């Protein structure tokens, strides 16, 4: 089984229903981050993301605190034979007139084989950081892949961010727009630090793009960029959905930051305008899953949509729809603001499971028809499953109910 991707969406004090347990703030243990090399100006914050459309390129990013240092990634097929090199770019940015970023490096490794382990290293001498990642399987209908799903948590991820390729979308905390102090370019820190392969999917914007990984076609959208009719994101998504080949990548997964379906009082209906704009497209495309963050809690829906509603038929609540995706709100990775612990009561029929706890999830795509999903609460430990579901593919099994 491929274990190659973690998806990052940058980004009730009492049980809300019989399907939920009480809110919990417990977080066990500490991150097993990379050991700091002893040398001066050693690379930090190493993370990797897919560097092309199909997984044969990976972009390695890192920072050096004092001066640029080496801008080269060494890699190969064995840790004792890093015979290939990729030279990257280096840049810095200022923010607010007082902050100066470290030196930010990005280097893209190209021509990689699918499903291959690539030992790599950045730095030199006493500053070397070594890591190893595995490229995803070649896109194909029965190529298995296991995704890790986490939102909101960034600073403790280094122990896995240099091991598994990440893909990400920006959240509200990444907007960083402050014209009163001269910062008039939104997402400035995010776009400097987190590269995306947007050009490979014909996107004109850093914040909306797609990748193919094994049997999945993953679309990343920006909740905080313009998406009205004829805007660049609107135009790109319309074209991108036409390009999706479900015979090659049957699993269609869409990622946003602000959820379209949310029964928590926090951020209630904030994603409504984007839902109204794009939901019909996703239902027509038979998307399998929509992942969101923003709300510091957890919720999974049934397959529901609002597309049947008109002013005369009275269907003002979400209706069960076999062609609709499942919506998972997983903004529970951790934050400094606390849990969103107030769900609306009674629990709507659209909500399958909801709970105010910190946690993470995995999506294990088995083949073209079936995927197994699990959500873990942090305080339970990794072997305890708090919520689970089998998902059947909407393209190959369009009428099957989950």
Automatic annotation (TrEMBL):
Belongs to the metallophosphoesterase superfamily. Purple acid phosphatase family. This is Purple acid phosphatase. It is an enzyme of class 3 (hydrolase). InterPro entries: Calcineurin-like_PHP (IPR004843), Metallo-depent_PP-like (IPR029052), MPP_PAP (IPR041792), PAPs-like (IPR039331), PAPs_C (IPR025733), PAPs_N (IPR015914), Purple_acid_Pase-like_N (IPR008963). Residues 160-298 form the Calcineurin-like phosphoesterase domain. The keyword Acetylation does not apply. Keywords: Glycoprotein, Hydrolase, Signal. The keyword Hydrolase applies. GO terms for molecular function: acid phosphatase activity; metal ion binding. It catalyses: a phosphate monoester + H2O = an alcohol + phosphate. It comes from the Eukaryota.
């Amino acid at each position: 089984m491929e274990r190659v991707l973690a998806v990052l969406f940058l980004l009730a004090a009492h049980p809300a229903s019989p399907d939920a347990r009480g809110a919990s703030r417990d977080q066990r243990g500490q991150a097993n981050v990379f050991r700091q090399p002893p040398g001066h100006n050693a690379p930090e914050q190493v993370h990797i993301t897919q560097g092309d459309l199909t997984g044969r390129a990976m972009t390695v990013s890192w920072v050096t605190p004092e001066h640029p240092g080496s801008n080269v990634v060494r890699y190969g097929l064995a840790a004792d034979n890093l015979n290939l090199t990729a030279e990257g770019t280096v840049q810095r940015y200022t923010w607010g007139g007082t902050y100066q970023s470290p030196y930010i490096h990005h280097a893209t490794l190209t021509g990689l084989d699918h499903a291959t382990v690539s030992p790599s290293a950045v730095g030199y001498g006493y500053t070397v950081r070594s890591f190893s990642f595995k490229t995803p399987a070649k896109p194909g209908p029965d190529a298995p892949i296991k995704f890790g799903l986490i939102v909101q948590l960034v600073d403790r991820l280094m122990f896995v961010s240099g091991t598994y390729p990440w893909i990400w979308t920006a959240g509200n905390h990444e907007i960083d727009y402050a014209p009163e102090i001269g910062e008039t370019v939104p997402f400035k820190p995010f776009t400097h630090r987190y590269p995306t392969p947007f050009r490979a999917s014909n996107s004109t914007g850093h914040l909306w793009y797609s990748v193919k990984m094994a049997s999945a076609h993953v679309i990343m959208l920006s909740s905080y960029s313009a998406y009205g009719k004829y805007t660049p994101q609107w135009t790109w998504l319309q074209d991108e959905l036409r390009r999706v080949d479900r015979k090659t990548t049957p699993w269609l997964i869409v990622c946003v930051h602000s959820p379209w379906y949310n029964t928590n009082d926090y951020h209630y209906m904030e994603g409504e305008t984007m839902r109204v704009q794009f939901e019909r497209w996703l239902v027509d495309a038979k998307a399998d899953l929509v992942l969101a963050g923003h709300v510091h809690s957890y919720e999974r829906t049934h397959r529901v949509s609002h597309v049947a509603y008109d002013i005369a038929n009275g269907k003002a609540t979400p209706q069960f729809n076999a062609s609709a995706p499942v919506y998972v709100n997983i903004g529970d990775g951790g934050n400094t603001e606390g849990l969103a612990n107030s769900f609306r009561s009674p629990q709507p029929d659209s909500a399958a499971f909801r709970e105010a706890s910190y946690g993470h999830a995995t999506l294990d795509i088995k083949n073209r028809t079936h995927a197994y999903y699990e959500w873990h609460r942090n305080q339970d430990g990794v072997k305890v499953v708090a919520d689970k579901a089998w998902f059947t593919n909407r393209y190959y099994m369009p009428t099957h109910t989950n």
